């Protein structure tokens, strides 16, 4: 039963000004109350994003090179891989995508748009061409047109998915926008759904909602491709 969730642990600390403030000490299990999964996810997102932003540049860049080094073991030549360009403190870099491209992989990148009411639409896809990316909303880097329909994701043998954390059953914690929740149900049932995370962002258990799509694998700098359980029962 997924009746507990992982959250940041804190203890009280008196700072130099004599003020009491919380200090994060790691991760704790706490029982869910009032099915408040969304609030729990928000707390986890804030904690993980804070940790990522505090990461030294040389550590981030070293991990990005390690992720790129796994590229040729991910996909065979002539396969289609749906990827994305990491931004900010996200693990990885354009080097991973370039490595896939040089390996003869057809790389599709997402195009994120919302409808007139601001609701995220399923992702559209464009082929990666080195040197032809554009900067879009939220600082995302996108492929140039033409863009194909959301159903194009079904052509992918592997889908690299941005994540803040993933648990060993495959539950993924994203940023909460919902683009991938709307897009991944269109994927082939045989596709590998791969959450790209740091090594310590694979955790024992995460809170899950009914719309969450389970990952089959995680990709980390040190461990490489890690098989996960199927939390949604997909075969």
UniProtKB/TrEMBL annotation:
Gene Ontology biological process terms in this record: folic acid-containing compound biosynthetic process; tetrahydrofolate interconversion
Cofactor annotation: Mg(2+)
Classification via Gene3D superfamilies: NagB/RpiA/CoA transferase-like
An annotated Gene Ontology molecular function: metal ion binding
Keywords: ATP-binding, Ligase, Magnesium, Metal-binding, Nucleotide-binding
InterPro entries per UniProt: FTHF_cligase, FTHF_cligase-like_sf, NagB/RpiA_transferase-like
Record's keyword annotation contains Transmembrane: no
Domain of life: Bacteria
EC assignment: 6.3.3.2
Protein transport among keywords: no
Catalytic activity: (6S)-5-formyl-5,6,7,8-tetrahydrofolate + ATP = (6R)-5,10-methenyltetrahydrofolate + ADP + phosphate
PANTHER family for this protein: 5-FORMYLTETRAHYDROFOLATE CYCLO-LIGASE, ATPASE INHIBITOR/5-FORMYLTETRAHYDROFOLATE CYCLO-LIGASE
Family note: Belongs to the 5-formyltetrahydrofolate cyclo-ligase family.
Name listed for the protein in its UniProt record: 5-formyltetrahydrofolate cyclo-ligase
